[in-house]
UniProtKB/TrEMBL annotation:
Name of the gene this protein is made from: hutI
Subcellular location field: Cytoplasm
Binding, 4-imidazolone-5-propanoate: R80, Y138, H165, Q231, S308
Main location: cytoplasm
Cofactor: Zn(2+); Fe(3+)
Name of this chain's protein: Imidazolonepropionase
Single biological process term from Gene Ontology: L-histidine catabolic process to glutamate and formamide
Source organism of the structure: Mycolicibacterium hodleri
One GO CC term on file: cytoplasm
Domain (Amidohydrolase-related) ranges: 249-363
Cofactor detail note: Binds 1 zinc or iron ion per subunit.
Known pathway: Amino-acid degradation; L-histidine degradation into L-glutamate; N-formimidoyl-L-glutamate from L-histidine: step 3/3
The UniProt record lists the keyword Zinc: yes
Pfam families: Amidohydro_1
Record family assignment: Belongs to the metallo-dependent hydrolases superfamily. HutI family.
């Protein structure tokens, strides 16, 4: 296999503390990176770069690991822009709009769901995402949940069974039956197509006992747990996630001091913050500083979905996390790359240490700081996945 040396990198973020400036981002200036067999083969200063079969001049730009979007809901149909507009006129977000998407998703063809995901995946890649997760949760019946996961699996190995998103309308007066269905027959049907199990543990969705019942059933089949917790109000979901050694508890908008202490003490569970959701629901900002100062591992993800956060832009999420959630630019970039990898329990992505998958992005900027400093500007100009340059910017028709 040919080796390629990417040279003349003005600022290289490696997330490898053993190289560079000793900071968590492991920044090397005037750097080069050697790629062979789709993996990082060498990293260091240009002046010490080894010979390679070919060389790419990066032009002094900033290069960083591809973003790892560890939380997204990408299999759905329909549009909820009117719901968003109503919220911006003062209506609150309570998750009630999920049923609108469930109806549209149940009525959609597999081909149209797949085409929609294809478009979103192209957006993610063009914005620098090289690993992403996607959930079911807009089917809420066995057939549509299985179909959603099958479609998701064609795009990513990180698929999550979220049959417990909300109780669907046909079970409103029999919620216990729905909880048993999710933890029984639906789980059995979805298990072959998923790596993870998730529950929306919040008011209006599932309580902590229901959440425990469903997650434990999933864990018993070999699925790995993660959960939505404390998005709409404080609750016991975050501590349940820690107790069950979930890979991640997501949202954490209303995390209490006790929740943060539990996360810090256990050190098994990432707190995944979702700036797009607070932005698009006009919610309070979770204070990232509290988590970071307590020593909690924090990830940032898009939560891309048609209701609460319809963005695929990790750069946007980084900018909001820096501006409104107390992150430094360095912390936000770490959380959107290495933090996402920890949240997905992946040890092959999220950093550019030797032996890692060669997933990286080139910014049309001299520093990663520009991701927050120049909000809304499409700075990601090249995306390399497993050593292969993607051409992500082809235009696509609107659905
Ligand atoms: O993560 N909170 C639960 N689920 C999604 C939103 C779903 C929707 O509104 O369609 C979220 O924000
Ligand atoms: Fe979500």
């Amino acid at each position: 296999m040919m080796s390629v040396l990417y040279d003349n990198i003005g600022e290289l973020v490696t997330n490898d503390t053993s190289v560079g400036d000793g900071s968590p981002l492991g920044v090397v200036t005037d750097a080069a990176i050697l790629v062979a067999d789709g993996l990082v083969a060498w990293v260091g200063p240009s002046a010490a770069a080894p010979a390679a079969d070919s060389c790419v001049d990066v032009g002094g730009c900033s290069v960083l690991p591809g973003f790892v979007d560890s939380h997204a809901h990408l299999v759905f149909a329909g549009d909820r822009s009117a719901e968003f507009a109503a919220r911006m006129s003062g209506l609150p977000y309570d998750g009630g709009g999920i049923s609108t998407t469930v109806e549209a998703t149940r009525n959609a063809t597999a081909a149209s769901l797949s085409d929609n995901l294809d478009r979103l995946a192209a957006e993610l890649v063009s914005g620098g995402v090289t690993t992403f997760e996607t959930k079911s949760g807009y089917g809420l019946d066995i057939g549509t949940e299985v179909r959603s996961l099958e479609i998701g699996r064609r795009f990513t190995p990180e698929t999550t069974f979220l049959g417990a998103h909300v109780v669907p309308p046909e079970y409103r007066s029999a919620r216990d039956d729905y909880v048993r269905l999710v933890a029984g027959e639906m789980l059995a049907a979805c298990r072959p197509h998923a790596r993870w199990i998730d529950v929306f543990c919040d008011r209006g969705a599932f309580d902590v006992d229901e959440t425990r019942f469903i997650l434990e059933a999933g864990i018993a089949t070999g699925l790995l747990p993660r959960l939505h917790a404390s998005q709409l109000g404080p609750g016991d979901g975050i501590r349940l996630g820690v107790e069950l050694r979930a890979a991640s508890v997501d949202h954490c908008t209303y995390a209490t001091d006790t929740d943060i202490e539990a996360l810090a003490a256990a050190d098994t569970t990432v707190a995944t913050l979702l700036p797009g959701a607070e932005f698009s629901t006009r919610a309070i900002w979770p204070d990232g500083r509290r988590f970071l100062d307590a020593g909690v591992t924090v990830a940032i993800a898009t939560d891309c979905n048609p209701g609460s956060s319809f963005t695929t832009s990790m750069a946007f999420c980084i900018a909001v996390a820096v501006r409104d959630m107390g992150f430094t630019p360095a912390e936000a970039v770490w959380s959107a790359t290495a933090g996402g990898a920890v949240a997905l329990r992946r040890d092959d992505v999220g950093s550019l240490a030797v032996g890692m998958r060669a997933d990286f992005i080139r910014l049309a900027a001299p520093s990663y700081v520009h991701l927050a400093y120049r909000p809304g500007v499409p700075l990601v100009c090249d995306v390399v996945t497993a050593g292969t340059l993607c051409r992500p910017t082809e235009s696509r028709d609107v659905q």
